[in-house]
Design goal:
Length: 262
Amino acid sequence: MKITQLGLMLLAVLAVNVQSAEAQKWGTVTGRFVIDGKAPTLPEDEITKDVEFCGAKLPNPSLKVSDDGGIQDVAMWLYLDRGDKAPTPHPSYAEAAKKPVVIDNKACLYEPHVVGILVGQPVEFKNSDPIPHNFKVEGFSNSGMNNLVPVGGVFEHEFDSEERYPMNASCSIHPWMAGKIIVRESPYMAVSAKDGTFTIENLPVGEHKLQIWHEIPGTIKEMNVGGKKVKDRKGLLEIEVKEGDNDLGDIKIEADLLTPKK
């Protein structure tokens, strides 16, 4: 069988692509956000509706700090400079992108309070409370939504565009309820857990920038990483990912930065 010159070229390109995929190495980034100083005490939210179920007051969910100083709900995502192309995700993310993300109403608060979602990923807005709620979500790149979710109900949705910063979620029936929704095209993002820890799995080996964010100050412009102060007006943390585990250790954020401005 005769192989044409074009066929040889296509085979060569295919071989290069296969070798490139096989040569790609990956690293997992971990760390922990901790508060530097005494955590501020936020006033409780006054409840003005459905007091018999919600109670007279609820804790303000904007700042959650564990007993040993871990900061919950610090978000980070892969940052790209203008003109840069996002790296091809690790194959493990293909199935994860199909798994629905659940945002629930529990005890008159959103659970989770801050959540990361991929563009096109299924989202289930759920109501586990015995009273009606609605989800009002406002962004810049996605059309706004304002949907009633009855008791035991679920509203399914997908966001079709990346948002530069987290979107606001709220309940028109219960005005103290609020949450944040991060919508990104790249799966390389994380939200810190109750103890302040975070994990971003299978980043391509190399240099990357992560944008760090918290609800109270917005972008975290100052932090201490490994004993070194990092300052950046965009809240960027530059890291070098090596194959295997990459532990950034404690990332300290000054308590003053997490104190709401009056």
